[in-house]
């Protein structure tokens, strides 16, 4: 209701001039309410109405809304009281708006008087001091109390108008006067040989006046560019334009590094000089801002303008664009390293890569496409090399996973990508990681999976070439394990921890960026490869143990003489020794121990299926079996684990018993009752 009333009566700021007339009308409405009091209904009601009207007259004169609320609480929401409250509320809001408007007009008049009448007559320091007082008045006005949302909205509008007016005055004629004076003093400031010692005091004084003026003008503490620093950078702009615009020999599209190196050399010479000459003065007025960083930002302006003008031509050529971005990134990284610029907003947005590339959606998309094309081409080169999956036994020390050449080159490529994009803001890093790096890891996984799927055919001898089945298994094993280890290391690095934290907050810090990819490699490759190794060892045993199998068909009739390992084991033992020697040189020590257990299982399974559970045994036969089985562990240096070696020793113990009673009396840990029954049935008693 109040908002509707204000909109109806005050459509513009100028309408506030008639606020007194509106207030008089409200007073008239109050008097009419008094006259409309109904005398009928008895003496008591008339007395009550008269008493209320008397109280309301006093309350309205005192603008006391709280007192009306007390009456409403006491007598209820009768029309006389609620109408009086509404009218009084309107009156108070209007008075508040009128007061705010009058104060706004008064401050505006003061600013106009200063700009038009006082400024031309005042000395610079006096003018700045006067502006400081006006700023104090403006800030005091900003803190004025308001009565309700309508008054607050009007107040906010007046504040914006005042700020705009104040900044126009502070950044107008006085600023231009000071800037012109400062530029005349600093023509040779960046040339130590030409710079006169006698001019330094004047330069510092004028610099201080200009910075002080801007600190006053800076009502919201959001200065993007500093007037004094822009003046200091004007010398560089003149020289830069001369060398890198127009038909100058140094102005070449394919050599952006010329311009960047020129700027870098200029910064190296002048940044220390700026801090020495003006550092303490700048800090006095802007204690939380960096002089050197903001001076560099001023120097970047003509450089940005040059490259921005050339972007249309450069972006038409993939090579030129990639080269430009590479040089821009190198330059920004040097700024970060040398001058402590941080790869985060708002600082990063002021640098060249962000200003020229990331803020331009079309250019960024083109860059991303070019990078994907380059990386895909590089990946194809890596994967299609003849020795792509050859294992490099000298790349890491013994005891660690020896990587294939493709895994080495892929890791190097991925780390290069990470380094190239390390300074990009999070959302752009994620873009490159998802569309470039993770894609490469998935492509490599697909290549390894293809090789994995072909292993069964290779293991069973259906494909014969110069690469053995075991080496093919190890190529996939070593490639997968090396990349998994690399991803685990990357995931724990500061760059990826910060990136993962920025994506997920604190909700998933127990995981890392690459966990899902690592999980895929482990599930589909590393957890399945031991089965392929087992199948290979089974194939080896079946192929090399044929002579042994044929020559040992009379286990039930062998004598109990002291047995020695069978000579027929020489061939399988030699083959397995060769395999273990190779495995020891290419897989990590922990993986080699796991593979030994796989071989133990294969040997145990062979003896169980081909010897133990298809023959009958005398005590002498059991002793020979024990000698032959133990020879594998002794000769190959296998781990004597309980699951395989321990279980087989219990089997042999049962077979060695001279009576059934002895067999059932043995203390057994691994054999079940049904297995003992089966073994007893195979004794030749």
Automatic annotation (TrEMBL):
InterPro entries membership: EXOC6PINT-1/Sec15/Tip20_C_dom2 (IPR042044), RINT1_Tip20 (IPR007528), Tip20p_domB (IPR042042)
Annotated coiled-coil segments of the chain: none
GO cellular component: a single term: Dsl1/NZR complex
One Gene Ontology term from the biological process aspect of the record: retrograde vesicle-mediated transport, Golgi to endoplasmic reticulum
PANTHER family: RAD50-INTERACTING PROTEIN 1, RAD50-INTERACTING PROTEIN 1 RINT-1
Protein name per its UniProtKB record: Uncharacterized protein
Organism of provenance: Ogataea parapolymorpha (strain ATCC 26012 / BCRC 20466 / JCM 22074 / NRRL Y-7560 / DL-1)
